[in-house]
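Subject: design request, 387 residues
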């Protein structure tokens, strides 16, 4: 009886999947890339540098893969999958239709009647008001070096302050991808450009959450790249530190070489390390320690004001170690963490592993999180190399 029910269930699932595939493959369900770009909204758009890809028919929307079919047809999160020549890409609108409508309504009078100086508007958009919960990109403690931050972007001939302002207001992710280009080793997707209100990015691979059941040594290799990223975002740029405030397993993708890349960079705090002495807080030279207890599995507790009062914060290590790598205990459940179930042989050979992971997650000493994270990464690299 059980076998018969199972066969019937498989039969109907197969039929349903086939029907959905046929329906969603119909022309009426196919997405037109020309309908996505909205170049008529320019110059209040994301740019025009990638329009030649669309005009030359070098981009195709994926209508074959089942997941891509579903997301493309129903516009899930306004993210679409396709190919640029022979490369897998993601096409993002960066906001939902309702958000665009609200944005257009709010700016129509402001932009057309009151302001013409978009350089001034950019500085106003990246304000240092810590009570502004709507700010997605913060530059602090001052905005005096805003042009230095956006130098890579503004140096492009086809990019204007109108484009810059629009992205800051809607979603600054493409700006971060250009400030921290993947071509220079930053752990982010490659940015191919924008056309109207559509951006084109590299498709990296599956999300980190799909790797939780992989062999431990593979997870260790991925974890090492996550710790590499924490170091880079904090220390690599001599002028700025970048603190990601929306880190989760679903916002990180893994490429074919087991390298983690951060695919959702909408919310970020940028600290200007070159802030003049007169603008520095009394705690500027002290390393900021992030602290917070997780009463829910996916909570990330942080204070933008406190981060902005310090030249260096341990926030990125805090997010990676406590939220992703280590075991988390909340009031309702225990989450094992990405580096769960370390093989006994590895623990025997590398006995400091669990201690370093614990110190990076919940340090006993005030400045121990960053140093423990660095030592943990060195240990993981040795394990990967010799085991």
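Subject: RE: design request

Done. Sequence follows.
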């Amino acid at each position: 009886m059980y076998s018969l029910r199972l066969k019937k269930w498989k039969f109907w699932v197969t039929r349903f999947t086939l029907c959905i595939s046929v329906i969603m493959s119909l022309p009426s369900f196919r997405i037109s890339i020309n309908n996505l770009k909205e170049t008529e909204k320019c110059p209040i758009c994301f740019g025009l540098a990638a329009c030649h890809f669309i005009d030359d028919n070098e981009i195709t929307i994926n209508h074959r893969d089942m997941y891509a079919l579903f997301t493309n047809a129903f516009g899930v999160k306004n993210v679409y999958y396709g190919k640029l020549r022979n490369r897998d890409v993601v096409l993002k609108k960066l906001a939902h239709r309702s958000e665009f409508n609200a944005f257009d309504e709010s700016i129509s009078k402001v932009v057309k009647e009151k302001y013409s100086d978009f350089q001034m508007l950019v500085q106003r958009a990246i304000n240092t008001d810590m009570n502004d919960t709507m700010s997605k990109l913060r530059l602090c403690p001052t905005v005096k070096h805003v042009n230095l931050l956006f130098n890579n972007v503004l140096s492009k001939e086809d990019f204007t302050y109108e484009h810059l302002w629009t992205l800051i207001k809607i979603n600054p992710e493409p700006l971060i991808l250009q400030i921290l280009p993947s071509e220079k080793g930053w752990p982010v997707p490659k940015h191919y450009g924008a056309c109207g209100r559509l951006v084109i990015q590299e498709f990296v691979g599956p999300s980190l959450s799909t790797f939780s059941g992989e062999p431990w040594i593979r997870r260790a290799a991925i974890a090492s790249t996550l710790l590499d990223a924490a170091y880079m975002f904090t220390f690599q740029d001599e002028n700025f530190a970048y603190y990601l405030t929306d880190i989760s397993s679903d916002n990180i993708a893994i490429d074919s070489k087991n390298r983690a890349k951060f695919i959702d960079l909408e919310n970020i705090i940028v600290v200007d390390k070159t802030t003049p002495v007169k603008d520095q807080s009394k705690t500027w030279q002290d390393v900021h320690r992030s602290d917070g207890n997780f009463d829910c599995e996916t909570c990330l507790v942080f204070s933008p004001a406190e981060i902005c009062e310090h030249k260096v914060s341990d926030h990125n290590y805090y997010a990676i170690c406590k939220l992703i790598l280590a075991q988390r205990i909340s009031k309702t459940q225990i989450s094992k963490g990405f580096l769960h179930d370390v093989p006994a042989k590895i623990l025997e050979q590398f006995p400091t592993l669990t201690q370093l992971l614990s110190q990076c997650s919940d340090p006993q000493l005030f400045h121990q999180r960053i140093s423990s994270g660095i030592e943990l990464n060195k240990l993981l690299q040795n394990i990967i190399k010799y085991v």
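Residues 28-203 form one domain.
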